[in-house]
Amino acid sequence: MAHYCDLAPGHPWHGPYHQEEYGFPVGDDTALFERLVLEINQAGLSWLTVLKKRDAFRRAFDRFDIDRVAAFGDTDRARLLADAGIIRNRLKIEAVIHNASVIQALREEYGSFAGWLDHHHPLPLADWVKLFRRTFRFTGPEIVGEFLMSTGYLPGAHRDDCPVHQRILACRPAWHTA
């Protein structure tokens, strides 16, 4: 089976994501929220579809401003469902808005979304999945695993012999320092 490290290099969409983002530690709440939104929207679709729609998602969800998205109302929901630039799935849109509100609450208790993740790290994937399911909407095993791997909380984003892997290790991802 081919690994992302085999498929992504040189690809116009996968290449930059593989080289500059995938697996690198993320500490900024806006970037974490964006990654969670993208992973939720990937469910049932290809990652390429999501990457191609990324700019449209940024526009549609106010550059992933957590407070603004948490305040979205019925007019925003209707706007999002009519936006052909994004994935127009009512359950996913509702999950994104709800999850923004959850992150607001996590910031109150843990200082940030990253603080909440750090507080619970390290956990095995099965425990992460249980925690995410209790906390967020639309977060099954695949979404949680990819979200945590892509943000440096779980290993496996890159093969050990991938040149990007060494760059990630130099950034001290949570999974490597635990």
UniProtKB/TrEMBL annotation:
InterPro entries noted in UniProt: Adenine_glyco (IPR005019), DNA-3mA_glycosylase (IPR052891), DNA_glycosylase (IPR011257)
Domain of life where this protein originates: Bacteria
Classification via SUPFAM superfamilies: DNA-glycosylase
Gene3D superfamilies documented for this protein: Hypothetical protein, domain 2
Coiled-coil region list: none
PANTHER family recorded: DNA-3-METHYLADENINE GLYCOSYLASE 1, DNA-3-METHYLADENINE GLYCOSYLASE I
Protein name, as recorded: DNA-3-methyladenine glycosylase I
Organism, scientific name: Billgrantia sulfidoxydans
